[in-house]
Amino acid sequence: MNHPEVSFPELLHTLALARGLDHESGEVTNIVSRRLCGALNMAAEYCWRAYPWPEVCTVVPALTSEDSTLRAGSLLAPGYTVLGLYGEDPTAAFAAGEVPERLDQRTGRDGVIEIVDAPTEKYYHVQLAAPVFNALAHDSTTNYSPGDGCYTAAGGVTSSGDSWRAVLGNNALAPVGFEDWLESASLVLNSYYRANGLLFKCSAAGVASDSNYPVSGSAWTESFIVTPYAWAPQRLPAFLKTAVLEGADAYLQRTDDGQISGAAAAHRVMDARLEDEVLSRLLKL
């Protein structure tokens, strides 16, 4: 369930060096960081959505859950895309060489997915939300709203430093340290674990397994608090790093030179990299 990832500071510093800026000497000011961050977000969104990469897709039995206050709470970070809806677990069906039953669906008011003749069991195949980076330091006096972002430096709540996105409203909480999911590892009471991009608090010590993996596990609510934590760390899958950095750099170069639109230049560079990635995967089938 875990894949190699790249943290925001690594992306930011690498892009800065490509632009001839030395982070250590203070050349990456707040204004520069915001501009680099904007280019990275453009490139990350484009590369993320270019293909249904298995590393950023998952299958879940529900998109929302009722929390202790009887309010529907999202179990996935906002910005996800539903790729398919099935009447059985498509992962298990494909593994058995079968074609899963696909359900009819439509999008109703406010983007809510409505199922035609809904069965007792249903499974959503979703592409998770792309990371949205922010270079502004977290401010303990700010009350953040969903979608707002912040940054915590290396050696703070995480060793690498991270960009964060608020997923809950009325949020005066601070980002927290967390553990990535490791199958068969011990689950520590009151520690936070990351699943599908969100952080969930362990409510009962145990051992990590498929059955208690947040959201998709059959018994996950016995091990974790249902409502995700207020902040979600934003990281990029390592296989997209080169395409994103080259795309962001092309975007900034073209914008600075004023020759053609930055987006057009970036898309050409990223398309070439992403086509290579898709082709290499197809050749391995």
Count of alpha/pi helices: 5
Shape, principal axes of CA atoms: globular
Distance between the termini: 20 Å
Class based on secondary structure composition and strand pairing: alpha+beta
Mean pLDDT: 87
Can you tell me about this structure?
The chain is of the alpha+beta class. It has a domain of 74 residues. Helices cover 27% and strands 20% of the residues. Helix 1 packs across helix 2, helix 1 packs across helix 4 and helix 4 runs antiparallel to helix 5.
List keywords for this structure.
single chain, 285 residues, alpha+beta, three-stranded antiparallel sheet, 5 helices
Summarize the structure.
The protein contains 5 helices and 17 strands. The chain is an alpha+beta fold and 285 residues long.
What topology does this entry show?
Blueprint: E1 5-6, H1 8-18, H2 30-49, E2 57-60, E3 64-66, E4 72-74, E5 81-86, H3 90-95, E6 105-107, E7 113-115, E8 123-127, E9 149-152, E10 162-166, E11 179-180, E12 186-187, E13 192-195, E14 198-201, E15 206-207, E16 231-234, E17 236-237, H4 241-257, H5 262-283
Parallel strand pairs: 11-13
Antiparallel strand pairs: 1-17, 2-8, 3-4, 5-8, 6-7, 9-10, 10-16, 12-15, 13-14
Helix pairs in contact: 1-2, 1-4, 2-4, 2-5, 4-5
